[in-house]
């Protein structure tokens, strides 16, 4: 059970290793959206994405537990298309241990190079969840590494919750947010945001954005069981994973709605942020803004908080 104390302890634990990212607004985007939007740019975060928060919290907690049991921390392993991979590689370097990262061969080269830059070993696999999990099991059997799952882990979720906690503290005190938003892939950030919002701003509702080309979460949200997307075809490479039973439970309890957007809508929102805010965001990052722009009546006049999740984009393959 993740309590407010769990989130506060995670924040205290990771504070020396992360940035407290700022809150940004943009008048042009507000006018176009018809809403009052506050962006938290986690593309400015360590490793260029919010995932640093959950990865660092999990590794530091693991290290503390091992130390308490009189052992030094052994190697860690995860599977990821990129940002969680970098987070675990970065966190492992902080505590002086080895990290093994199973990554789909189709993951952006810039993300693979960043993982190696933090000293981790990359093991490439086919771009399926089954291939990722098989790769993890093989490396665990060979090395004895401890798995830190990208989202199906309360330590990771509590770390991700700190991004929403900061946004509420920095921009939601005088007037609470009407809506908090995040994209959804595996649901770690969305779960953390939903929990932090529930505890710290209970009048605020949480809405997620999801690509039409990886629409498993909306189906799972509606059916109450973990579903697979009917098809996978989206530019939002960070949102291809399905929910877990854990994240689905948090989401169904504390999230109001999940709305989908097309790739052209994602690309248009991404370009708008690049052009008007002059910051680099990756496609997955643009999904919540795309939702706001697609549903102006739903967000009209609302105070909206959006986590800009990351900026690890391959500059050689921009969609515009």
From TrEMBL:
Keywords: Pyridoxal phosphate. Residues 14-310 form the Tryptophan synthase beta chain-like PALP domain. Its cofactor is pyridoxal 5'-phosphate. InterPro entries: TrpB-like_PALP, TrpB-like_PALP_sf. SUPFAM superfamilies: Tryptophan synthase beta subunit-like PLP-dependent enzymes. It comes from the Bacteria. This is Pyridoxal-phosphate dependent enzyme.
């Amino acid at each position: 059970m993740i309590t407010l104390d769990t989130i506060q302890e995670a924040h205290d634990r990771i504070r020396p290793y992360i940035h407290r990212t700022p809150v940004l607004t943009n008048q042009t985007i507000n006018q176009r959206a018809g809403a009052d939007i506050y962006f938290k740019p986690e593309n400015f975060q360590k490793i260029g994405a919010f995932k640093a928060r959950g990865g660092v919290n999990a590794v530091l907690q693991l290290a503390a537990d091992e130390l308490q049991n009189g052992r030094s921390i052994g190697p860690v392993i995860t599977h990821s298309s990129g940002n969680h991979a970098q987070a675990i590689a970065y966190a492992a370097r902080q505590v002086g241990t080895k990290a093994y990262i199973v990554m789909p061969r189709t993951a952006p080269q810039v993300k693979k190079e960043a993982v190696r830059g933090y000293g981790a070993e990359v093991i490439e696999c086919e771009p399926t969840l089954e291939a990722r999990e098989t790769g993890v099991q093989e490396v665990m059997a060979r090395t004895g590494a401890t798995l830190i799952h990208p989202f199906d882990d309360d330590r990771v979720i509590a770390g991700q919750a700190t991004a929403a906690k900061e946004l509420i503290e920095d921009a939601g005190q005088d007037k609470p947010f009407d809506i908090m938003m995040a994209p959804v892939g595996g649901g770690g950030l969305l779960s953390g945001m939903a929990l932090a919002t529930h505890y710290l701003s209970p009048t605020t509702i949480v809405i997620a954005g999801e690509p039409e080309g990886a629409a498993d979460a909306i189906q799972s949200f509606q059916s109450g069981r973990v579903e697979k997307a009917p098809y996978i075809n989206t530019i939002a490479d960070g949102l291809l994973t399905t929910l877990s039973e854990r994240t689905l439970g948090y989401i169904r309890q504390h999230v109001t709605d999940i709305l989908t957007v097309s790739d052209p809508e994602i690309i248009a929102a991404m370009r708008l942020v690049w052009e008007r805010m002059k910051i680099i965001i990756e496609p997955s990052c643009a999904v919540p803004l795309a939702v706001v722009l697609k549903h102006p009546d739903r967000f009209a006049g609302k105070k909206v908080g959006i986590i800009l999740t990351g900026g690890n984009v391959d500059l050689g393959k921009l969609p515009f």
